[in-house]
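Input record, target 12 of the design panel.
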C-alpha cells in the first residue's frame, strides 16, 4: 500500500512541520520506555515540551483555525487538545513516578491526534477556508514563528 505524501497549503505548512516535532516527542517517550529509563526522567521532558512547543502550537491552531471554522471536526480537535492537556497534567502530577502505561497513553494520544489533524482536519480546513483567510492565517503564523524553536532538552533519556 503506497501512502502519498500530503500536500499542505503553504499558509499552514508551519503547523504541519510542528507536527513532525510532536511525533518526535512521542517517539522519544516510547524510546525511553523501551530502554527502561526511569519514568521520572521521561516525566521531566513532558512539561518542558508542553511549555516550549505544544502550548503555543495548540493556541495557534485553536485561534487561527478551529475557532474560525468551529464545525464538528474542529470541535473534535478542540476536545482532543483538552484530553491531551489533561494527560500531560496527569503525567506531571503522578507520584512517585508516572507509570509506563500513562506515558504510553500520552504518546499514543498525541500521535493519533496529529495524524487526525494531518489526514482529516487540515485537508478539510483547506477546503472550507478561503484563500484570503488561509493567506491571513499564514501571515499570522509566520510572524509568531520569526525565531524557530529548537528542542534542546538537556537529558537525552531516549538514547539512554
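The sequence produced for target 12 reads:
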Amino acid at each position: 500500500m503506497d501512502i502519498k505524501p500530503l500536500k499542505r497549503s503553504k499558509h499552514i505548512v508551519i503547523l504541519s512541520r510542528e507536527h513532525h516535532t510532536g511525533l518526535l516527542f512521542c517517539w522519544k517517550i516510547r524510546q525511553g520506555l523501551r530502554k527502561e529509563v526511569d519514568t521520572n526522567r521521561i516525566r521531566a521532558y513532558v512539561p518542558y515540551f508542553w511549555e516550549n512547543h505544544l502550548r503555543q502550537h495548540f493556541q495557534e491552531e485553536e485561534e487561527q483555525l478551529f475557532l474560525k471554522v468551529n464545525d464538528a471536526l474542529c470541535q473534535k480537535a478542540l476536545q482532543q487538545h483538552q484530553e491531551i492537556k489533561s494527560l500531560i497534567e496527569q503525567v506531571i502530577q503522578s507520584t512517585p513516578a508516572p507509570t509506563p502505561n500513562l506515558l504510553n497513553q500520552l504518546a499514543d494520544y498525541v500521535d493519533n491526534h496529529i495524524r487526525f489533524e494531518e489526514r482529516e482536519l487540515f485537508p478539510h480546513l483547506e477546503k472550507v477556508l478561503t484563500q484570503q483567510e488561509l493567506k491571513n492565517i499564514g501571515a499570522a503564523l509566520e510572524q509568531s514563528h520569526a525565531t524557530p524553536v529548537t528542542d534542546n532538552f538537556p537529558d537525552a533519556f531516549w538514547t539512554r
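The chain has a mean pLDDT of 93.
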